[in-house]
Amino acid sequence: MDLSRRTLLLGVPTVAATALITPSAAAAPPHQSPIHIRSRTAVPAPHLPALEVDYPRHVDLRVHYVRKDEDDPAGCSVRGREEVVEAEVPEGAAGIRIGDRRFELLQLHFHTPAEHHLDGRRFPVEQHYVHRGPDGETLVLALLLTPGGRGGSVQDAVLGGLPEECGPEREVTGDLAASLPRDLSTFRYQGSLTTDPYSEPVSWLVLPRPQEVATASVEGYRALFPDGDARRTQPLNGRVVQYRRQ
Question: Domain named Alpha-carbonic anhydrase: which ranges (predicted)?
């Protein structure tokens, strides 16, 4: 993606984006994720393209536990902070559009507590929809989850029967289209993966309106990771967070 296109789609300032993609990037401050988002300092960006979601009503997901047990390579007893429960999406089944570019949904996974902080608040669970762009770029749509839902969501389908660290893969069916809130306003910034190798750049779209899921789903995931599986927030290092109301 050329620099002007990336700036247009995601609201990344030209100077910051240049530091990410030019040879001098090694000397630039790291642009890591997650971050603490403060709505009062986010820059309104109504000119940015809207988020268009193309998620199906019915999709089969393959759910498995992703292990990264460096301290326990032969066993299944350590719940590492960089481990997650991941649901793989069939190729070509779902995606989003921003402007004239489509990003294919590869998988979704969860972190507890939420990795991004919003105005001083930290939600119990954060869900990441990981997408790949036409040029191989990574875009993550982040959704904050809170208890109180009546159940039946795709999140509940995945979290309702969590696989153990060395347990078998599960297959579940869910409604991806209903997994997002109606309000698709987003905070947009340029960052990184939140697990090793923390690669940059990753384009982040963070939905500020949380989605309610069943209380048992939240409690079940937190019980699976009693010490959490979230990375601490990282410094902005000059980045500007933009807000696209929708």
Answer: 1-245
The number of residues making up the chain comes to 246
pTM: 0.88
Mean pLDDT, the chain, whole residue set: 88
CATH homologous superfamily for 3-23+32-69+82-244? Alpha carbonic anhydrase (3.10.200.10)
- pLDDT tens digits for range 26-40: 457 899 999 999 999
**Which DSSP state fits 29?**
P
Q: Are 159 and 179 in contact (CB under 8 A)?
A: no
Any residues with CB less than 8 A from the CB of 77 and at least 6 apart, and which?
Answer: 165
Q: What is the CA radius of gyration of the chain?
A: 17
- pLDDT single digits (tens) 53-93: 999 999 999 999 998 866 666 568 778 888 999 999 999 99
Q: Which residue has the higher pLDDT, 145 or 26?
A: 145
| Domain boundaries, given as residue ranges, for the chain | 3-23+32-69+82-244
Distance of alpha carbon 140 from alpha carbon 94, whole angstroms? 14
CB 114 within 8 A of CB 124: yes
Mapping DSSP onto H, E and C, the string for 41-98 reads CCEECCCCCCEEEECCCCEEEEEEEECCCCCCCCCCCCCCCCCEEEEECCCCCCEEEE
